User: Fold Peroxidase from Tetracentron sinense.
Amino acid sequence: MKSSNIYASIKQWKQLGDTIQLWSFRCDSKLCFVLNVVRDADNGGCEGSVLLDDTATFRGEKNAIPNLSVGGFDVIDNIKTRLESVCPLTVSCTDILTLATREAVNFVGGPYWKVLLGRRDGRTASETEANNLPSPFEDIDDLVAKFVAKGLNVKDVVVLSGGHTIGYAQCITFQNRLFNFSGTGKPDPTLDSDLREDLQSRCPNEDGSNSNLAPLDPVTVYKFDNTYYKNLRNNMGLLQSDQTLLTNSSTADMVRIYGMFPSVFARDFGDSMVKMANIGVLTGQDGEIRRNCRVMN
Ligand code: HEM
Assistant:
Protein backbone atom coordinates (compact mmCIF):
# COMPACT_ATOMS: atom_id res chain seq x y z
CA MET A 1 0.00 0.00 0.00
CA LYS A 2 1.39 3.38 -0.95
CA SER A 3 1.88 5.91 1.81
CA SER A 4 -0.51 8.16 -0.16
CA ASN A 5 -3.24 5.59 0.55
CA ILE A 6 -2.49 5.69 4.24
CA TYR A 7 -2.64 9.42 3.94
CA ALA A 8 -6.04 9.18 2.24
CA SER A 9 -7.34 7.00 5.05
CA ILE A 10 -6.17 9.50 7.57
CA LYS A 11 -7.85 12.28 5.60
CA GLN A 12 -11.13 10.41 5.82
CA TRP A 13 -10.47 10.10 9.48
CA LYS A 14 -10.02 13.87 9.73
CA GLN A 15 -13.47 14.30 8.30
CA LEU A 16 -14.83 12.22 11.15
CA GLY A 17 -13.92 14.95 13.56
CA ASP A 18 -11.11 16.76 15.22
CA THR A 19 -11.04 14.81 18.42
CA ILE A 20 -10.38 11.53 16.69
CA GLN A 21 -7.26 12.67 14.99
CA LEU A 22 -5.90 13.95 18.25
CA TRP A 23 -6.21 10.55 19.78
CA SER A 24 -3.54 8.87 17.78
CA PHE A 25 -1.07 11.51 18.72
CA ARG A 26 -1.76 11.19 22.35
CA CYS A 27 -1.94 7.46 22.19
CA ASP A 28 1.48 7.24 20.64
CA SER A 29 3.04 9.15 23.47
CA LYS A 30 1.33 7.07 26.08
CA LEU A 31 2.04 3.88 24.26
CA CYS A 32 5.76 4.39 24.45
CA PHE A 33 5.66 5.25 28.09
CA VAL A 34 3.39 2.42 28.98
CA LEU A 35 5.48 -0.18 27.38
CA ASN A 36 8.79 0.93 28.65
CA VAL A 37 7.62 0.68 32.17
CA VAL A 38 7.59 -3.04 31.65
CA ARG A 39 11.16 -3.05 30.46
CA ASP A 40 12.10 -5.25 33.38
CA ALA A 41 10.00 -7.98 31.89
CA ASP A 42 11.78 -7.36 28.61
CA ASN A 43 8.57 -6.99 26.69
CA GLY A 44 8.26 -3.22 26.75
CA GLY A 45 8.49 -0.62 24.00
CA CYS A 46 6.51 0.99 21.21
CA GLU A 47 4.79 -2.19 20.19
CA GLY A 48 1.10 -1.35 19.78
CA SER A 49 -0.08 -2.84 23.04
CA VAL A 50 -2.51 0.01 23.68
CA LEU A 51 -4.51 -1.16 20.67
CA LEU A 52 -5.24 -4.60 22.10
CA ASP A 53 -8.68 -5.50 23.39
CA ASP A 54 -9.20 -7.55 26.54
CA THR A 55 -8.83 -11.30 26.25
CA ALA A 56 -9.62 -14.14 28.62
CA THR A 57 -6.08 -13.92 30.02
CA PHE A 58 -5.48 -10.21 30.45
CA ARG A 59 -7.16 -6.83 30.70
CA GLY A 60 -5.77 -4.49 28.06
CA GLU A 61 -4.39 -1.01 28.51
CA LYS A 62 -7.61 0.52 27.20
CA ASN A 63 -8.99 -0.02 30.72
CA ALA A 64 -6.22 1.93 32.37
CA ILE A 65 -7.32 5.20 33.94
CA PRO A 66 -5.05 7.42 31.81
CA ASN A 67 -6.41 5.81 28.63
CA LEU A 68 -10.12 5.77 29.43
CA SER A 69 -10.95 8.72 27.21
CA VAL A 70 -8.82 7.44 24.36
CA GLY A 71 -10.80 6.66 21.21
CA GLY A 72 -10.41 6.35 17.48
CA PHE A 73 -9.27 2.73 17.38
CA ASP A 74 -11.53 2.25 14.37
CA VAL A 75 -9.32 4.57 12.34
CA ILE A 76 -6.29 2.36 12.90
CA ASP A 77 -8.50 -0.67 12.15
CA ASN A 78 -9.55 0.84 8.81
CA ILE A 79 -5.99 1.52 7.73
CA LYS A 80 -4.95 -1.97 8.81
CA THR A 81 -7.80 -3.59 6.86
CA ARG A 82 -6.79 -1.79 3.68
CA LEU A 83 -3.15 -2.72 4.17
CA GLU A 84 -3.90 -6.39 4.81
CA SER A 85 -5.96 -6.60 1.64
CA VAL A 86 -3.07 -5.50 -0.58
CA CYS A 87 0.00 -6.47 1.38
CA PRO A 88 -0.73 -9.01 4.13
CA LEU A 89 1.35 -9.36 7.30
CA THR A 90 3.79 -6.65 6.28
CA VAL A 91 3.07 -3.38 8.10
CA SER A 92 2.70 -3.56 11.88
CA CYS A 93 -0.03 -1.84 13.84
CA THR A 94 2.71 -0.03 15.73
CA ASP A 95 4.09 1.47 12.52
CA ILE A 96 0.58 2.47 11.44
CA LEU A 97 0.07 4.21 14.75
CA THR A 98 3.41 5.97 14.50
CA LEU A 99 2.71 7.20 10.95
CA ALA A 100 -0.83 8.25 11.83
CA THR A 101 0.52 10.22 14.74
CA ARG A 102 2.86 12.19 12.55
CA GLU A 103 0.13 12.84 9.98
CA ALA A 104 -2.30 13.96 12.66
CA VAL A 105 0.17 16.44 14.09
CA ASN A 106 0.94 17.76 10.63
CA PHE A 107 -2.77 18.09 9.77
CA VAL A 108 -3.31 20.48 12.62
CA GLY A 109 -0.35 22.67 11.72
CA GLY A 110 2.49 20.84 13.43
CA PRO A 111 5.85 19.72 12.09
CA TYR A 112 6.58 16.75 9.83
CA TRP A 113 9.39 14.38 10.71
CA LYS A 114 10.93 11.28 9.29
CA VAL A 115 9.44 8.13 10.80
CA LEU A 116 11.66 5.08 10.87
CA LEU A 117 9.64 1.97 10.07
CA GLY A 118 10.00 -1.72 10.73
CA ARG A 119 8.58 -1.97 14.24
CA ARG A 120 6.81 -5.20 15.07
CA ASP A 121 3.79 -5.63 17.32
CA GLY A 122 4.06 -6.90 20.87
CA ARG A 123 2.39 -10.00 22.15
CA THR A 124 1.25 -8.66 25.50
CA ALA A 125 -0.25 -5.62 27.24
CA SER A 126 -0.53 -4.45 30.81
CA GLU A 127 -3.24 -2.30 32.32
CA THR A 128 -1.18 -2.03 35.49
CA GLU A 129 1.78 -0.57 33.64
CA ALA A 130 -0.46 1.79 31.69
CA ASN A 131 -1.65 3.19 35.02
CA ASN A 132 1.97 4.01 35.79
CA LEU A 133 2.13 6.84 33.24
CA PRO A 134 3.36 10.28 34.28
CA SER A 135 0.63 11.89 36.33
CA PRO A 136 -0.82 15.38 35.82
CA PHE A 137 -0.22 16.05 39.52
CA GLU A 138 3.51 15.49 39.38
CA ASP A 139 6.20 18.11 39.87
CA ILE A 140 9.11 18.71 37.57
CA ASP A 141 11.54 16.41 39.41
CA ASP A 142 9.17 13.45 39.27
CA LEU A 143 8.34 14.04 35.60
CA VAL A 144 12.00 14.27 34.67
CA ALA A 145 12.74 11.08 36.63
CA LYS A 146 10.05 9.18 34.70
CA PHE A 147 11.30 10.44 31.35
CA VAL A 148 14.93 9.69 32.22
CA ALA A 149 13.95 6.17 33.24
CA LYS A 150 12.78 5.67 29.65
CA GLY A 151 16.01 7.01 28.13
CA LEU A 152 14.70 10.52 27.53
CA ASN A 153 15.97 13.77 29.05
CA VAL A 154 14.90 17.10 30.51
CA LYS A 155 14.65 18.71 27.09
CA ASP A 156 12.34 15.91 25.94
CA VAL A 157 10.08 16.60 28.93
CA VAL A 158 9.72 20.24 27.95
CA VAL A 159 9.38 19.80 24.22
CA LEU A 160 7.03 16.79 24.35
CA SER A 161 4.84 18.53 26.90
CA GLY A 162 4.25 20.94 24.01
CA GLY A 163 1.96 18.20 22.69
CA HIS A 164 -0.55 19.83 25.01
CA THR A 165 -0.96 22.55 22.40
CA ILE A 166 -3.96 20.52 21.21
CA GLY A 167 -6.68 18.47 22.82
CA TYR A 168 -8.70 18.37 25.98
CA ALA A 169 -8.39 17.15 29.53
CA GLN A 170 -11.09 15.95 31.91
CA CYS A 171 -11.79 18.07 34.98
CA ILE A 172 -10.60 15.32 37.28
CA THR A 173 -7.06 15.85 35.98
CA PHE A 174 -6.80 19.49 37.11
CA GLN A 175 -9.69 20.09 39.54
CA ASN A 176 -7.27 19.92 42.46
CA ARG A 177 -6.00 23.34 41.32
CA LEU A 178 -9.39 25.04 41.35
CA PHE A 179 -10.78 24.97 44.89
CA ASN A 180 -8.50 23.43 47.48
CA PHE A 181 -4.96 23.33 46.20
CA SER A 182 -2.65 21.24 48.39
CA GLY A 183 -5.07 21.51 51.33
CA THR A 184 -4.90 25.34 51.43
CA GLY A 185 -8.65 25.75 50.92
CA LYS A 186 -7.76 28.11 48.07
CA PRO A 187 -7.08 27.71 44.33
CA ASP A 188 -3.58 27.26 42.97
CA PRO A 189 -2.05 30.75 43.08
CA THR A 190 -0.07 30.03 39.91
CA LEU A 191 -3.30 29.77 37.88
CA ASP A 192 -4.42 32.88 35.97
CA SER A 193 -7.58 34.25 37.63
CA ASP A 194 -9.68 34.59 34.43
CA LEU A 195 -8.82 31.07 33.37
CA ARG A 196 -9.54 29.83 36.89
CA GLU A 197 -13.04 31.33 36.82
CA ASP A 198 -13.72 29.75 33.45
CA LEU A 199 -12.49 26.38 34.69
CA GLN A 200 -14.48 26.63 37.92
CA SER A 201 -17.65 27.04 35.88
CA ARG A 202 -16.76 24.13 33.57
CA CYS A 203 -15.76 21.98 36.52
CA PRO A 204 -17.94 22.79 39.54
CA ASN A 205 -16.72 21.29 42.79
CA GLU A 206 -18.82 18.11 42.59
CA ASP A 207 -18.16 14.53 41.46
CA GLY A 208 -20.55 14.79 38.52
CA SER A 209 -18.20 17.18 36.77
CA ASN A 210 -15.18 14.86 36.73
CA SER A 211 -15.44 14.01 33.06
CA ASN A 212 -16.26 17.49 31.76
CA LEU A 213 -13.59 18.76 29.41
CA ALA A 214 -11.39 21.82 29.12
CA PRO A 215 -8.86 22.63 26.40
CA LEU A 216 -5.21 22.07 27.24
CA ASP A 217 -4.36 25.19 25.21
CA PRO A 218 -7.35 27.51 25.64
CA VAL A 219 -5.96 30.08 23.18
CA THR A 220 -5.48 27.92 20.05
CA VAL A 221 -7.04 24.58 20.92
CA TYR A 222 -7.14 23.07 17.41
CA LYS A 223 -3.81 24.38 16.21
CA PHE A 224 -0.48 22.74 16.75
CA ASP A 225 1.70 25.74 17.53
CA ASN A 226 3.92 27.13 20.28
CA THR A 227 1.12 28.98 22.11
CA TYR A 228 1.28 26.35 24.85
CA TYR A 229 4.60 27.84 26.00
CA LYS A 230 3.28 31.41 25.88
CA ASN A 231 0.34 30.24 27.97
CA LEU A 232 2.66 28.81 30.61
CA ARG A 233 4.39 32.17 30.92
CA ASN A 234 0.95 33.75 31.42
CA ASN A 235 0.04 31.26 34.17
CA MET A 236 -2.38 29.54 31.81
CA GLY A 237 -1.06 25.98 31.88
CA LEU A 238 -4.02 23.66 32.50
CA LEU A 239 -2.38 20.77 34.32
CA GLN A 240 -0.12 21.05 37.33
CA SER A 241 2.38 19.01 35.28
CA ASP A 242 2.28 21.73 32.61
CA GLN A 243 2.75 24.72 34.89
CA THR A 244 5.51 22.93 36.80
CA LEU A 245 7.81 23.47 33.80
CA LEU A 246 8.27 27.03 35.07
CA THR A 247 9.42 25.98 38.52
CA ASN A 248 12.94 25.00 37.49
CA SER A 249 15.32 27.52 35.96
CA SER A 250 16.56 25.33 33.13
CA THR A 251 13.10 24.10 32.05
CA ALA A 252 11.73 27.64 32.44
CA ASP A 253 14.42 28.82 30.08
CA MET A 254 13.42 26.24 27.48
CA VAL A 255 9.78 27.32 27.86
CA ARG A 256 10.87 30.87 27.10
CA ILE A 257 12.84 29.84 24.01
CA TYR A 258 10.05 27.64 22.60
CA GLY A 259 7.54 30.44 23.24
CA MET A 260 9.71 32.86 21.29
CA PHE A 261 10.82 30.66 18.40
CA PRO A 262 8.12 28.42 16.85
CA SER A 263 10.57 26.90 14.38
CA VAL A 264 12.88 25.77 17.18
CA PHE A 265 9.93 24.13 18.91
CA ALA A 266 8.81 22.46 15.67
CA ARG A 267 12.27 21.07 14.97
CA ASP A 268 12.88 19.83 18.50
CA PHE A 269 9.40 18.34 18.77
CA GLY A 270 10.00 16.20 15.68
CA ASP A 271 13.37 15.08 17.02
CA SER A 272 11.91 14.08 20.39
CA MET A 273 8.99 12.27 18.77
CA VAL A 274 11.44 10.18 16.77
CA LYS A 275 13.36 9.42 19.95
CA MET A 276 10.21 8.45 21.80
CA ALA A 277 8.88 6.30 18.99
CA ASN A 278 12.12 4.35 18.98
CA ILE A 279 11.95 3.37 22.64
CA GLY A 280 11.91 -0.38 23.16
CA VAL A 281 10.77 -1.29 19.66
CA LEU A 282 10.55 -4.91 18.54
CA THR A 283 12.32 -5.83 15.30
CA GLY A 284 13.65 -8.90 13.49
CA GLN A 285 11.98 -12.06 14.72
CA ASP A 286 10.63 -10.49 17.92
CA GLY A 287 6.90 -9.94 18.29
CA GLU A 288 4.70 -10.31 15.23
CA ILE A 289 2.82 -8.40 12.55
CA ARG A 290 -0.76 -8.50 13.76
CA ARG A 291 -3.52 -9.26 11.26
CA ASN A 292 -5.97 -7.34 13.40
CA CYS A 293 -4.65 -4.56 15.63
CA ARG A 294 -7.03 -5.49 18.43
CA VAL A 295 -5.89 -9.07 18.89
CA MET A 296 -2.66 -10.99 18.79
CA ASN A 297 -2.36 -13.47 15.95
C1 HEM B 1 4.71 15.12 30.74
C2 HEM B 1 3.96 14.07 30.98
C3 HEM B 1 2.50 14.08 30.58
C4 HEM B 1 1.45 14.14 31.42
C5 HEM B 1 1.48 14.17 32.94
C6 HEM B 1 0.26 14.16 30.59
C7 HEM B 1 -1.02 14.19 31.07
C8 HEM B 1 -2.15 14.30 30.29
C9 HEM B 1 -3.49 14.29 30.81
C10 HEM B 1 -3.88 14.13 32.28
C11 HEM B 1 -4.32 14.47 29.76
C12 HEM B 1 -5.85 14.53 29.81
C13 HEM B 1 -6.37 13.12 29.80
C14 HEM B 1 -7.85 13.03 29.98
O1 HEM B 1 -8.42 13.85 30.68
O2 HEM B 1 -8.45 12.11 29.42
C15 HEM B 1 -3.52 14.56 28.57
C16 HEM B 1 -4.02 14.75 27.30
C17 HEM B 1 -3.23 14.85 26.19
N1 HEM B 1 -1.87 14.64 26.13
FE1 HEM B 1 -0.62 14.42 27.68
N2 HEM B 1 0.62 14.13 29.27
C18 HEM B 1 1.97 14.07 29.22
C19 HEM B 1 2.75 13.99 28.07
C20 HEM B 1 2.24 14.07 26.80
C21 HEM B 1 3.04 13.92 25.62
C22 HEM B 1 4.53 13.56 25.63
C23 HEM B 1 2.23 14.11 24.57
C24 HEM B 1 2.55 14.06 23.12
C25 HEM B 1 3.73 14.32 22.62
C26 HEM B 1 0.91 14.38 25.09
C27 HEM B 1 -0.20 14.67 24.32
C28 HEM B 1 -1.47 14.81 24.83
C29 HEM B 1 -2.64 15.16 24.01
C30 HEM B 1 -2.66 15.47 22.51
C31 HEM B 1 -3.75 15.17 24.87
C32 HEM B 1 -5.21 15.50 24.50
C33 HEM B 1 -5.95 14.24 24.18
C34 HEM B 1 -7.41 14.44 23.87
O3 HEM B 1 -7.84 15.53 23.51
O4 HEM B 1 -8.15 13.45 24.03
N3 HEM B 1 0.95 14.34 26.45
N4 HEM B 1 -2.20 14.44 28.93
